[in-house]
Design goal:
The protein has 213 residues and is mainly alpha-helical. The protein is 83% helix and 0% strand. The protein has two helices and no strands. The longest helix has 172 residues.
């Protein structure tokens, strides 16, 4: 089916719907007019019956209201009594809950105090162990430092002797016809074995100054 034929069918359906809607509107208007006409004639009777029914209903309502008022008074008195009883029950339950809560809080506080005490003891033990370890390490460092200072003192003494020997060799080498030139040209083994030198300018110093003093 082509688009034109579909549009034609849709237009025809739309026109049919429009005609049906207009016919329904006309029919509805006629029904409304007839209903209004019939309603005007029966309105007086309906209003009279409505007034009678309303009066009877109001009397029934007033009677029911009086009954309800009496029932409400009884209910208020019963509620006041039950409220007093409920207040006592609630007060007792609240007191029990408060006592239970206080006991629970006291138990938790005691447990927390024990935990704090245990933690403090554990921390004190760890601190003692840490301090003892520091003392042990400090003692080892001091012992190593003392050994290092002794070794340094020995090395400085050995270096001083080597320097003095070097100076003597130089003085002897400068003298004419001296036989110390060969000794000056060959390396000299020191006491520690760490200060060899050849024929060159050798100056051994430390942070204080020369060992030549």
């Amino acid at each position: 089916m082509s688009l034109t034929s579909e549009l034609t069918d849709i237009s025809a359906q739309f026109e049919d719907a429009q005609r049906a809607r207009l016919a329904a509107i006309v029919e509805l208007r006629s029904k409304v007019k007839s209903t209004l006409a019939n309603g005007r004639t029966g309105r007086a009777g309906v209003m009279s019956r409505h007034r009678e029914e309303t009066k009877a209903r109001l009397q029934e309502i007033f009677g029911a209201a009086a009954f309800v008022r009496g029932s409400a008074q009884d209910l208020i008195e019963r509620l006041a009594h039950e409220r007093g009883v409920t207040r006592d029950v609630i007060s007792t339950r609240l007191q029990l809950s408060v006592d239970k809560l206080q006991n629970s809080v006291q138990t938790q506080l005691e447990g927390a105090a024990r935990q704090r005490k245990t933690a403090a003891q554990r921390e004190a033990g760890a601190r003692r162990a840490y301090l003892e370890d520091i003392d042990r390490r400090a003692g080892a460092v001091l012992a190593n430092a003392e050994s290092f200072m002794i070794a340094l003192h020995n090395d400085r003494a050995a270096a001083r002797r080597v320097w003095q020997q070097h100076c003597r060799v130089q003085r002897q080498a400068r003298q004419p016809g001296s036989s110390a030139k060969a000794a000056f040209e060959s390396p000299i083994a020191t006491e520690t074995g760490r200060y060899p030198y050849a024929q060159s300018e050798v100056v051994v110093t430390d942070s204080v100054g020369s060992f030549a003093n």
